[in-house]
Write a structure and sequence with these properties.
The complex is a heterodimer. Chain A has no helices and 12 strands. By secondary structure, chain A is mainly β. In chain B, the strands form 2 sheets. In chain B, strands 2, 4, 5, 6, 9, 10 and 11 form a 7-stranded mixed β-sheet that branches.
């Protein structure tokens, strides 16, 4: 069965630090990849997505992610975090055969120290 | 434009009861999906409906059912509630041919 692994359960950073959140998926075929963010008290929002083409995708609020097919990874990065980036981040995948079913990772809680 | 809306926002039920959760998709979206998010975990897929037909089902017992109406809104029904059904229930909508789902604020269900 397909699965998504986010190895960092809780990450704590100071403002202006660089961020990288890991995400690995298990599926050998064509995938669509997503990062969603859930700010405190708010609903799940799409941060960025990869369907095809350039493996380096840019999203909102200065976030980017790189798809490395050989490593089955889709890590999220941001060069300089802000206190407002405090949130829960979810990596997710859909497959060609199950495009309607999003498979989410367990999430990474990001805490930013002001 | 309004996003995905869900009602109610919070709900408290007791074991064995039945619950109905409602979702209205973004205008123009014909596909609705339901997810269950237990505290500390990522959302888990329950159902997807498109044009009033079930197009996908996750690994949930038959106590969970759903339907979609002609206006593309949807209901999720859960019978014989268990304590473990306590969770945030999310609805997401998407338009035909796209691979992106947009989520509503969720309904938080507490089963006592």
């Amino acid at each position: 069965a397909q699965s998504v692994s986010q190895h960092n359960h809780h990450v704590i950073l100071s403002e202006a630090a660089s961020l990288e959140l890991g995400c690995n998926y298990s599926y050998g075929g064509t995938v669509n990849l997503f990062w969603y963010v859930q700010y405190p008290g708010q609903h799940l929002q799409l941060l960025l997505k990869y369907f095809s083409g350039d493996p380096l995708v840019k999203g909102i609020k200065g976030f980017e992610a790189e798809f490395i097919k050989s490593k089955f990874s889709f890590n999220l990065r941001k060069p300089s975090v802000q206190w407002s980036d405090t949130a829960e981040y979810f990596c997710a995948v859909t497959t060609y055969s199950s495009a309607s079913k999003i498979i989410f990772g367990s999430g990474t809680r990001l805490s930013i120290r002001p | 434009d309004a996003g995905v809306t869900q009602s109610p926002t919070h709900l408290i039920k007791t074991r064995g009861q039945h619950v109905t959760l409602r979702c209205s998709p973004i205008s123009g979206h014909k596909s609705v999906s339901w997810y269950q998010q237990v505290l500390g975990q990522g959302p888990q897929f329950i159902f997807q409906y498109y044009e009033k037909e079930e197009r996908g089902r996750g690994n949930f017992p038959d106590r969970f059912s759903a339907r979609q109406f002609p206006n593309y809104s949807s209901e999720l029904n859960v019978n014989a509630l268990l304590l473990g059904d306590s969770a945030l229930y999310l609805c997401a909508s998407s338009s035909q041919g796209t691979k992106t789902q947009y989520f509503g604020p969720g309904t938080r269900l507490l089963v006592l």
